[in-house]
Amino acid sequence: MSPAPKAVLGIDFGTTNTVLALLNPDGTSSTARFGTQDVFRSVLCFWAEDYGRGVAQGSRLRHEAGPAAIDAYLDDPLDSRLIMSMKTYLAQRSFSETTIFGRRFTLEALIATFLRSFLAAAKVDPEGLRIVAGRPVRFAGERTDDDFGETRLRAAFAEAGMAGVDVAYEPEGAGYRFARTLNAPATVLIGDFGGGTSDFSLLRFVPGEGVEPLGHSGVGIAGDVFDYRIIDHVIAPRLGKGGTYRVMGGSELPVPPEWYSSFARWHRLSLMKNPRTLRDMRDVMRNARDPHRLANLIALIEEEMGYRLYQTVSATKAALSGADSVQLSFHHKELAIDTEITREQFEGWIAADIAQFAGAVDRVLEQAGQPAVDHVFLTGGTSFVPAVRRLFDERFGAGRVTTGGEFVSVAEGLALIARDRHG
Fold first, then answer.
1. CA–CA separation, 261 and 224 (whole Å)
2. pLDDT above 90 for 7
3. What is the helix (H) or strand (E) element at residue 13, kind and residue range?
4. Phi first, then psi: what are they for 80, rounded to 5°?
5. pLDDT tens digits for 184-225?
6. For residue 160, what are the contacts with CB-CB under 8 A and spacing of at least 6?
7. Cα 109 from chain centroid?
8. What was the pLDDT predicted at 155?
9. Continuous segment of H or E residues that includes residue 72
10. Main-chain phi, psi angles of 251, to 5 degrees
11. At what angle do helices 386-396 and 351-367 cross, to 10 degrees?
């Protein structure tokens, strides 16, 4: 897939996956393929080839991206560093850089490193391209600055060789793709559910005249938060959450809850493997009421089992979209978890998150003056969750709700936006 000079592309850089779409000569768009997949995992793996003079001074730092990064990490998890969910940090001023095997990387440099590898895997030369990249309406994280997030996103693309990249809201991209199915004027609510954010756009489509955005809204909640709920309720208590410890025979103190907040969020997990945190955990473990649970937590962190746990939890969540109950099974050394999770339990855990989705929909309709909605188009992996779909079926009527292109619709629509913006 090698576009000609000034080819038009849409790039959906996501928290979990990244997708590239190319505008075809007939005016449609299609996605790059990576083996049998349309998506490329948004991960990096670093490791050092030590030539005997120390990592910081004489080693060669190597990296892989996407599926190759996961393979490299699983091949040697103890001597590599897996970087996930980079997009989650974009709008957080508190995160500016990190050190990997003695070398400092800004967040922009990390994302640029990923994007260069992504383009190489797609066999795309960025020279002379016209690109529209997606951005969420609301970036993920706490105390976020959305304008700052977009500025850093643009800087990362520029560092990767794509200076002058244009930006559009991700749900607007999904809306452009959906518009290809319309042959009459319509007002469409778009819900784009990613790994880190969920965004909503209300758009007015008039065939032959274009698209008018009527409103946008979003929340920093999506698939990763749903995973977090499962870990928080099922995994974390078996690793010491809610337990107590004593200091020098004094009164009981709670095991620090912030450990479990970080442990349950994939993009923070690697940050826990530092000497100070592990030392604090061992100090608490020696005086804990249930020391074996904290021992299991430490073992999971030290032996880099987070990704394996992530796969197990994510698969359980996905299975609950098609079954009333699922068995979650995870074993590592002394830790043995075999427990049934029902869909009813899961929906109770995510009820507050679903309420936030409903609030975001309220806001986008209020912006537009409460117009009648002709169609609802839902995209992204989290749109498969029955409680999510039910929210829209009950509010707008199941006959108006459509899903499709769950992983590629945003990128394909961004390429169509690029076409319109660049002629």
1. 13
2. no
3. strand 8-13
4. -140, 170
5. 999 999 999 988 889 999 999 998 887 899 999 999 888 889
6. 111, 112, 113, 115, 116, 119, 126
7. 18
8. 97
9. helix 67-75
10. -70, 160
11. 40
With 0-12 / 13-18 / 19 or more C-beta atoms within 10 angstroms meaning exposed / middle / buried, residue 106 is middle
Q: Which residue's structure tokens are 């000034």? A: 6
Distance CA 26, CA 278 (A): 57
Q: Which residue has the tokens 């459509």?
A: 402
Whose structure tokens read 């945003």?
A: 410
Q: Which of 144, 137, 14 is nearest to 92 (CA)?
A: 144
Question: What does the alpha-carbon distance between residue 178 and residue 379 come to, in Å, rounded to a whole number?
Answer: 10
Between strands 186-193 and 375-379, the pairing is: parallel
One-letter amino acid of 333: K
| Count of CB atoms situated within 10 Å of the CB of 200 | 27
pLDDT tens sequence across 74-119: 888 888 888 988 999 999 998 888 888 889 999 999 999 999 999 9
Amino acid at 107: L
The C-alpha angle 236, 241, 244, rounded to 5 degrees, equals: 160
**Residue for token digits 């990362």?**
156
Please say whether the beta carbons of 45 and 64 come within 8 A.
yes
Cβ count near 7 (within 10 Å)? 18
**Residue in the structure block whose two tokens are 């609950």:** 320
* Amino acid (one-letter) located at 74: L
Mean pLDDT of all residues belonging to the chain: 90
Q: Contact at 8 Å (CB) between 177 and 132?
A: no
Question: Residue 5 pLDDT > 50, yes or no?
Answer: no
DSSP string, 306-368: HHHHHHHHHHHHHHTTT-SEEEEEEEETTEEEEEEEEHHHHHHHTHHHHHHHHHHHHHHHHHT
Q: Find the helix or strand (DSSP H, E) in which 391 lies.
A: helix 386-396
Q: How far apart are CA 277 and CA 263, in angstroms?
A: 12
Within its chain, how far is the Cα of 390 from the centroid? 23
Q: Report the residue count for the chain.
A: 423
Both tokens of 313, joined, read 């939890």
- For the segment 242-299, what is each residue's pLDDT rounded down to a tens digit? 999 998 878 899 999 999 988 877 657 767 878 899 999 999 999 999 999 999 999 9
Structure confidence at residue 270 (pLDDT): 67
Q: Which amino acid is at 164?
A: G
- Dist CA 85 CA 16 (whole Å): 6
What string of DSSP letters covers 105-159?
A: EEHHHHHHHHHHHHHHHTT---TT-EEEEEE-SS-SSSS--HHHHHHHHHHHHHH
Neighbours of 333 (CB within 10 A): 11
